[in-house]
Amino acid sequence: MLTERQQFILEEFLQIPDKALSVGDLLPLFDVGRTSLFRDLSAMVEAGLLLPDAPTRARTYRLNPNSTAYLRWDLSRPPQQRPDVRYNPRLLTDYRPNHSFLLTSNQRTRLRQAGNIAGAEQLEPGKNYTRLIATLLIDLAHASSNLENVPISWLDTKTLIEFGERPDGLDETQLRIVLNHKAAINHLTTHAGEMNLCRRDLFDLHALIAEGLIAETTAIGTLRSRVVRFSDSRYLPPDNPHLLKEAFDEFCDKASVITDPYEQAFFTMTFVPYLQPFQDGNKRTSRLGMNIPLLKHHLAPFSFSDLRKRDYMFGLLAFYERGQHTFLAEAFVAAYEKTAPRYAALLDYIQQGGMLGTLT
């Protein structure tokens, strides 16, 4: 935890993040002596925020490029101000299922506490079960569509999905994105018990999510053959079809044997967008695919409804360009802890004999 003065020092470094500053440079800005400033800077070095250039009292300091403060500054800049970053195969090859983890032990415990819905496996298909699944469908379709810049409200999503009533202000592409979510989530909730994070099931999800949105129909539900580039990131995904196939197969092999469903879900959330296996719709496919292990284990689904778009995009960007998964992990856990209790409360209400109604 930084002191107030150390926070001011950090803000001074962030003014020109690649510039080195000495104690002498900072002295005119604070009403304290050289020794006090030196102690502050030493504490910030110890905290990993700053890097010293020499072991002397005349040393200068720079922001640590691996620190959170520097990363947030660097990745918030226009992408043209950063260098290209190629796909790093070691991020996937070095991952050992059930031995190395993207989520910390504490995060996995918090997720289990939030999402463990007692009695979910005993809930038989019927009117109440259908309403519970419909709630998931609407929440996930709404949140995922919003993440694709589709300006649709939750209520408009509900009326479109349940009654086919087209909301004002959506063009044909935006309408198709929402309706494709409906088809894909219906497939997911119906077949989750038999689905796995494998080539066939991910291809099926992609085919549903991309229907009518990719001009080349041969690119739907299959690995891409074209090079993919981003307008908002300098990350360069795999561009060799043979290497892409090998990487995707390795992803499926590892994802399918992860025993912790939350680690499985987060592994999918990070690596499907990182590989960019499809010509388009990669993030949408990952958002649905990560729910396979959650639904399969009768856990609360992740609807993305409480995940801030900026946190989601920054987390992906940090993984794309720096191989840092911690930002996305923190955003995932915090959002899940907000959304999961809602499904638990609805299920508990059903188990107490309550009926889930609708406005109509």
From TrEMBL:
Q: Which SUPFAM superfamilies match?
A: Fic-like (SSF140931), Winged helix' DNA-binding domain (SSF46785)
* Sections of the chain in a coiled coil: none
Top-level taxon of the source organism: Bacteria
Residue span, Fido domain? 197-338
Recorded GO MF terms: ATP binding
Residues annotated for ATP binding in this entry: 280-287
Q: Which InterPro entries match?
A: Fido, Fido-like_dom_sf, Fido_containing, WH_DNA-bd_sf
Q: Which keywords accompany this UniProt record?
A: ATP-binding, Nucleotide-binding
Q: What is this protein called in UniProt?
A: Fido domain-containing protein
